[in-house]
């Protein structure tokens, strides 16, 4: 059994760990060329070539604030379709949950003087937190995110099979993934005549 994390993007992070937490694969996958759909199709094929039956998979959810929303949706959808066609289940972690799992909030500083982390600063904070939590280092922030997702997959498995005590921020992430709360439907406004 392996725990797999997938961070979908044009440079997709992929990590597979064994049950002892040993990293078996840590790669950034790109597909072939720079023109879609060839790049996305070959990227999806590349990801699927690394997936094994029995893998417990966690994939990062679609980011809402991306500048390239259509392309992100295409990549995410392509990967999920391929997993579905192979009969493979997966868990999905929201982008903020991935950061929360290593206790990165996106803010630094004291109350009243907090500064929001954005772009490269946020990615560096996540990479530093992963190093502090797990002693895992990689030059690609996509692979680091995939590593967090593989850790989430492992903790989901443990939550379902072994009594575990996690820090509250990690336990909240696992609980949110396993017990999602349905959002109430918005009421339609009725036009008054």
Description:
- It is a single chain.
- By secondary structure, the protein is α/β, with parallel strands linked by helices.
- The protein has a single domain (3-178), classed as 2-Layer Sandwich (Nucleotidyltransferase, domain 5).
- Helices cover 44% and strands 16% of the residues.
- It contains six helices and seven strands; from the N terminus they run βββαβαβαββααα.
- It has helices at 38-50, 69-85, 95-101, 119-134, 141-161, 168-178; strands spanning 3-7, 12-17, 23-29, 56-60, 90-93, 107-108, 115-116.
- It has a five-stranded mixed beta sheet with strand order 3-2-1-4-5, sandwiched between helices. A two-stranded antiparallel sheet has the order 6-7.
- The termini are far apart.
- The model has no long low-confidence stretch (mean pLDDT 91).
Condensed summary:
This protein is of the alpha/beta class and 193 residues long. Helix content is 44%, strand content 16%.
Determine the oligomeric state from the structure.
Answer: single chain
- The average pLDDT is 91
Quickly give the structural class. alpha/beta
**Rg from Cα:** 18 Å
Give descriptors for this structure.
about 190 residues; 7 strands; alpha/beta; Nucleotidyltransferase, domain 5; about 45% helix; two-stranded antiparallel ribbon; about 15% strand
Topology:
Elements lengths: L2 E5 L4 E6 L5 E7 L8 H13 L5 E5 L8 H17 L4 E4 L1 H7 L5 E2 L6 E2 L2 H16 L6 H21 L6 H11 L15
Helix pairs in contact: 1-2, 3-6, 4-5, 5-6
């Amino acid at each position: 059994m392996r725990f797999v994390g997938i961070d979908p993007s044009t440079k997709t992070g992929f990590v597979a760990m064994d049950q002892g937490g040993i990293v078996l694969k840590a790669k950034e996958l790109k597909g072939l060329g720079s023109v879609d759909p060839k790049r996305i199709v070959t990227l999806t094929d590349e990801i699927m070539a690394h997936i094994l039956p029995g893998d417990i998979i966690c994939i990062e959810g679609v980011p809402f604030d991306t500048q390239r929303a259509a392309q992100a949706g295409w990549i995410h959808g392509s990967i999920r379709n391929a997993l579905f066609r192979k009969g493979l289940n997966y868990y999905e972690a929201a982008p903020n949950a991935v950061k929360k799992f290593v206790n990165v909030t996106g803010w630094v500083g004291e109350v009243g003087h907090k500064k929001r982390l954005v772009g490269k600063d946020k990615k560096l904070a996540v990479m530093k937190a992963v190093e502090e939590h797990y002693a895992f280092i990689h030059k690609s922030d996509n692979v680091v995110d995939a590593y967090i997702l593989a850790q989430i997959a492992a903790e989901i498995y443990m939550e379902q099979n072994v009594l575990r005590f996690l820090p509250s921020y990690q336990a909240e992430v696992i609980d949110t993934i396993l017990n999602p709360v349905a959002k109430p439907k918005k009421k339609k406004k009725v036009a008054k005549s």
